[in-house]
Amino acid sequence: MPEHILFLTGRLAEPQLRRVLAGLDGAGFTWEVRVLGVQVAALLTADLIRRRLEDTGGADRILVPGRCRGDLDALSEHFGLPVQRGPDELMDLPEFFGRQGSPPDLSRHGVLIFAELVDAPRLPLEAILAQAAAYAADGADVIDLGGLPQTPFPHLEDAVRALKSRGHRVSVDSQDPEELLRGGRAGADYLLSLTSETLDLVEAVPSTPVLIPSRPGDLDDLVAAMDTLEARGRAYLADPILDPLPFGFTASIARYHELRRRKPQAPLLMGTGNVSELTDADTPGIHALLLGIMAELDIRALLTTQVSPHCRSAVREIDAARRLMFAAKAAQSLPRGLSDALLGLRQRKPFPYGAGDIAALAGAVKDPGFRVQVSAEGLHVFNRDGLHSATDPFALWPHLKLEEDGGHAFYLGVELARAQIAWQLGKRYNQDEELAWGCMGPGREDEPSTARDP
User: Which of 28, 118, 202, 276 has minimal Cβ neighbours within 10 Å of its Cβ?
Assistant: First the structure.
């Protein structure tokens, strides 16, 4: 017998839900739609369902709207069958039922993130600790203290010890061998960057060195330094150096590939700042591409910076990208449909409803409250008095008649501004919710919106 699913919804969404489910005939289940006395499906809560749903009609499973709030586990126990949330938008039901297996596991990754404080010598200790805490919260595994040429770092030892006391792993990044020694003696876990000419430093401190070529592009020199440390039984990371676009980037990627061919098991590191910081392009895509290359070449450590304003969320983006690529590689699938964290400016399915769907929904509205929706054709505002559509919010103002209702006018102004941005960029818009910016946005994506209709 096919599974029988009971769908709970509101009055406005009922006709559309029935149409979508009718199009899913043959999907391997039978269905029933039940309206529990609410106008808007998002107003359903677990408590309300428990009070109003008198019988489950022989269902094997209950599916509630994605925005339904409350304890569904308790509801499942009460009814004696699974109660689950569906997608936020009912037009996403076909994709929802097309998913195979469990949701992707994005809890795992295989890359160590070094986050560099590039001006550490100029920062007081309190600022170093505050920035380190922010980096760690965004996903950094190692706090890198970046030295500056011809700039004293008198509190280097204090910084290393303070960071270690807070539970951070620490690296010291300097061109000055004396600073590297000081950092290593203070307890730094890693030293960046040593060459074949400065390898003797490893005999003085237990820190793990990060090796780079003595001369740009000299892979033979780097391999010789790696061989030396392997013969001594010392751990290391090796970095052939990523060059910026369009000045050697492709050749540097080829060097990483060649180094992996020559040293199949060697632990490698890639520094991404030369590309992300020095390219005026949105960084999530850059980081996705670089982490994908790292996944192919089994590069398990990365050094990043957040200097340029457009790189301010680099650590969060890299954290999302390393999880995405790990999940894709583990599942032997493309990195698609697993996470929206790196889709800050676009979304794969931004407009779940067409203009015709919205017109049908508007025709069922019987109250004066305004609804705002977005389709590929533009913005749509409707209530019981009619539907109005435009691509410019100012063209809608004459139809809203809110000149004497300042609070409501302000609210609709905010919502229409969000809707216009969503339409222009190709993003999903949901009334009363902030636009989702993936890992580029401030704060957590699952925080409740503060938007309210006065």
Answer: 28
Confidence (pLDDT) at 326: 97
In this prediction, what percent of the chain has a pLDDT beyond 90?
Answer: 78
Helix (H) or strand (E) holding 114: strand 112-117
Residue 443's pLDDT is what?
A: 52
Q: What is the pLDDT of residues 168-208, one digit of tens each?
A: 999 999 999 999 999 999 999 999 999 999 999 999 999 99
CA angle 134, 140, 142 (to 5 degrees): 110
User: Of 262, 252, 201, 256, nearest to 227 (Cα)?
Assistant: 262
Q: How many CB atoms lie within 10 A of CB 148?
A: 16
pLDDT, the chain, mean: 92
**Which superfamily is assigned to 112-331 in CATH?**
Dihydropteroate synthase-like (3.20.20.20)
CATH 3.20.20.20 segments of the chain: 112-331
- DSSP single-letter state for residue 436: P
Strands 371-375 and 378-383, by their bridges, are antiparallel
pLDDT for the residue numbered 454: 30
CATH class of 3-98: alpha beta
Task: Give the Å distances, CA to CA, from 418 to 65, 67, 160, 345, 379.
Answer: 23, 19, 45, 13, 10
- Spatial contact of 283 and 252, defined as CB atoms under 8 Å apart: no
Find the distance separating the first CA and the last CA of the chain, reported in whole Å: 49
Report angle CA 139, 294, 200 to the nearest 5 degrees: 85
Alpha carbon of residue 133 to chain centroid: 19
Residue 19 φ/ψ region, left for φ over 0, alpha for ψ in the -120 to 50 degree band, beta for the rest:
alpha
Crossing angle for the helix pair 393-400 and 406-425, nearest 10 degrees? 150
β-sheet bridge partners, residue 382: 371, 387
Chain position carrying tokens 């979304």: 347
Where exactly does CATH 3.40.50.11600 map onto the chain?
3-98
Measure Cα distances from 151 to 71, 118, 175 in Å: 57, 12, 11
Look at the pTM and tell me if it is higher than 0.85.
no
Report the distance separating Cα 436 and Cα 222, nearest Å.
44
Q: In 3-state terms, what secondary structure has residue 166?
A: coil
Contact present, 143 and 172 (Cβ < 8 Å): no
The arithmetic mean of pLDDT across residues 297-310, rounded, is 97
- Is 273 strand, coil or helix? helix
The answer to whether 11 and 35 have CB atoms below 8 angstroms apart is yes
CA distance 352 to 430: 11
pLDDT at 102 over 70: no
Q: What is the Cα 309 distance to its own chain's centre?
A: 18
**Confidence at residue 91, expressed as pLDDT on a 0 to 100 scale:** 82
